[in-house]
Structures are given as C-alpha cells and as structure tokens.
Amino acid sequence: MTETKTAALEFRNIDILFDRSGRRGAIEAALARLDAGETREEIGRALKVTVGVAGANLAVARGEISVLMGLSGSGKSTLLRAANRLNRPVRGEVRIGNGSAWLDIARCDDETLRELRKTRIAMVFQQFGLLPWRSVRDNVGFGLELRGMAPSIRREIVEEKLALVGLSNWADAQVHELSGGMQQRVGLARAFATDADILLMDEPFSALDPLIRRKLQDELMDLQKRLKKTILFVSHDIDEALKIGSRITIMREGRIIQTGTPDDIALRPVNDYVAEFIRHMNPLPTILASTFMRRFHDLPLRADGMIDGGNIAIGPDARAVRIGDQERVATAHHEWVRGAVCIVPVGMSLGEVIAVRQRSGFPVLVEDEGRLIGLCDDADILQALSGEARHG
Ligand SMILES: Nc1ncnc2c1ncn2[C@@H]1O[C@H](COP(=O)(O)OP(=O)(O)OP(=O)(O)O)[C@@H](O)[C@H]1O
Fold first, then answer.
1. Ligand 1 contacts CB of residue 236 (under 6 A)
2. Rounded to whole angstroms, what are the CA distances from 97 to 5, 78, 112?
3. Who has greater pLDDT, 130 or 154?
4. What are the structural domain ranges in the chain?
5. How far is CA 15 from the centre of its chain?
6. 210-227 and 180-193 are packed helices; what angle lies between their axes, rounded to 10 degrees?
7. pTM (2 decimals)?
8. Best mutation site among 16, 78, 203 for ligand 1, i.e. most ligand atoms within 8 A of its Cβ?
9. Domain 289-385 falls in which CATH fold?
10. 7-120+196-279 with 289-385: one CATH topology?
11. What's the whole-number average pLDDT of the chain?
C-alpha cells in the first residue's frame, strides 16, 4: 500500500467503545454484535455500550492537514483522541512512524506513550486549554518545562514561537488579558514549541467569531507552508474543512464514510449523505477553475482552425483570441489592461474567477504551468455556482 510508506500516522481497523453498563464482558458482547452488523443504536440500546468509532481506517500523510468532518457525535474527537491514546481503541492499531519502524500507540507501554506525548504529538483544543494564571510566555513554555528543559534554552524557543504567531509583544501578559483569537494563537505557539511533528487540533477555531476564525485559518495555512507538520484537524464546518484540508474524512455514526481530497469530496461525493454536506458549502473560495472550466481538448474546432469556445475563439498559438470579429490579446490577470482577455491560473477559486470575469468583461482563459488549457464563460460559472461543477 503506497499510503503506508508516506503516512506519519495511520489508524487501522479502529474500534473505540465506551461501556456505560459497568457489566463485565459488555465490550466483548458489543464487539460481537458490531461484527454481526448491528448498528450503533441497537448496540447502545441492548448493552449500554456506546460505539464511538467503528472500523476506522485512515492514513495521514506526512506534512498534510487531514480534516475529520461530521455532525456532532459522529466520532471525530474520539478518533482524534486515539492518536495520543486519550481514548484507547479496543481493537485496531494506531501506527506512528518511528525512525524506520512503526510504533502502535494503542498498545505501547506507558513510558513510550509519555515520551511520544512529550516529543512527537501535541494537541490544540477548542477552549485553548491554557493556564489562565500564567503569563503567555509561561503557557507557551509549559510543555518544555515539563520536559525539564533549562530556563535559558526554553526562553529562546518560546520567543521564537511567539514571534511565529505574532505575539512577541504579549509575552508577559496574563492569558486572560488576551482576546479569544490571541489565546488560540498562544495554544498554537505552545504546540509548535514542543517541536512535535504531529499536531492534533480539536475544533481549535470554533469558539471564535467568523472573521477571527478565517484569519486564524489563513495563519495556520501560512505557518503550515513553512513548518510542514502532520496535522489531524477536527471540524464540523464543511467550508473550513474544504479550505484547510489536503484530505477530508467524512464521519457518520462512528464510521468513516469517505476520505478524499477537497475535490473528491466536493465533486465526487460517494453518497447522498456526503452530497448533503456539499450542498451547504460556500463554493466561492472552494471550487477551483480546474474543476469547472471547459478544457480546450473537449471543444470543437472552427473552419479557420481556431478552438470554438462559443463567445470566444482561441487561435492555435493560444494567445490570439477572437471575440465576434475583433482580435483581442490575452494577458495574465495581474497585468490586465482594458480590452484584454484575462488568463488565470488553474488553481484560482471560483470567487476570484468571477471577479476577473467581471472586471475584464470577457470569458476567462485558464493556464497550467504557462500553457493555456481551458476557459470559463458565464455558463460555466453559473453551473459551478449551482453545484453542477464540471468534473476535472
Ligand atoms: N469518554 C466518553 N465516554 C462515553 N461516551 C463517549 C466518550 N467520548 C465520546 N463518547 C461518545 O462517543 C460518540 C462520539 O463522540 P465524539 O465526541 O467523538 O463525537 P464528535 O463527532 O467529536 O462530536 P462533537 O462535534 O459534538 O464533538 C458520542 O456518542 C459520545 O457521546
């Protein structure tokens, strides 16, 4: 399996059950019923055992942001918390790469687990998990302090991480003096300070108001470009998931329904349940030109040899374009001049394509690594807006 090679963290056949009955053998009985195909609800009713996660398989690749998405109670946090054994699976493995070998977090000894939590896996919570009576600096350095790191070295690392999240001037402030968004930055800095390569983020931004939330999402994506951590991120917001996730996993009633890239989820939902999530997303920042443009190789040629794009014709050298009986130049959108047709990159979002289309007044051409490959006209944009995006 190629995924295994590059995975930093891998869940294999994970079942996590919670016994509310206190009866001996309840978990084993629940597993037997689970294997016989009974639902979470049936098992809960019959045995007072909650199925938190069932049969979950997920590989999180090194350096990616993998988002767990689903409604409340779908098992996202339960699965996430198995990654540092805050929840212990009753069956299955949680594998983490350790040099050239794998370690099973679900079964390793306590000493190894403590070491992993200190050095490899850090967690950022929704409610920040900060110590309000400590200063910002002392919160960021908390994990290092626990590790027994000397104050002078600790201070250096803490300053560096505070600068990373833009809080250098707040180092001596008390945490309660900070706004929610700033407190969450302290949480991020603390996670970064440990140098953990795996970050677990449980709805870290959901307590924040929408503007701050979007800003922190942008900041996280920026930081991630530089730091290249492996991030497992829980969210119940499809827009957030599609924005920050390199891969998204949709969960329902403890089970994984679909794992895929944002495009897979948005354009190729495996069933109505996933499609329903997608119907509620905001397509403007999410859908990319690559997915709703018309590709040149799907378009007919005109008698004069130009590609027939309806309202626009594109010459064989692909820079000479014709609208009606007028020749136009095609130019990169950031070098736009009046009367020109704009060329945008294939990764441009629907919202931005609309803005460019609006400004130039012409259909928009799409390029990939310097080569023109397609176009977006009003009909393509409307189809994308109405959820009928073209498949890439
Ligand atoms: N420690 C626990 N003890 C008993 N039941 C639990 C425990 N943790 C989770 N559960 C149950 O497991 C199921 C999945 O919960 P989980 O918190 O993982 O869902 P979630 O998708 O993260 O939801 P939310 O978005 O509301 O946090 C729920 O039915 C929950 O009540």
1. yes
2. 9, 21, 13
3. 154
4. 7-120+196-279, 289-385
5. 23
6. 20
7. 0.79
8. 78
9. CBS-domain (3.10.580)
10. no
11. 89
- Which position has the higher pLDDT, 105 or 7? 105
- Ligand 1 center to 201 CA (angstroms): 16
Q: What is the mean pLDDT of residues 17-45?
A: 95
Identify the CATH homologous superfamily for domain 7-120+196-279. Answer: P-loop containing nucleotide triphosphate hydrolases (3.40.50.300)
50 CA → ligand 1 middle, Å:
9
Q: Which residues contact 2 (CB under 8 A, 6 or more apart)?
A: none
Residue 109 pLDDT greater than 90, yes or no:
yes
| Residue indicated by tokens 């016989």 | 36
> Can you tell me which atom of ligand 1 is nearest the CA of 79?
18
ipTM > 0.90 for the complex: yes
Cα 261 to middle of ligand 1, angstroms: 25
In the chain, % of residues over pLDDT 70: 96
Task: Report the residue among 17, 51, 77, 250 best suited for mutation to probe ligand 1: largest number of ligand atoms under 8 A from its CB.
Answer: 77
183 ligand 1 Cβ < 6 A:
no
Compute the Cα dihedral for 348, 350, 351, 352 and give only its sign. Answer: positive
Q: Which residues contact 124 (CB under 8 A, 6 or more apart)?
A: 184, 187, 188, 190, 191, 199, 200, 201, 202, 204
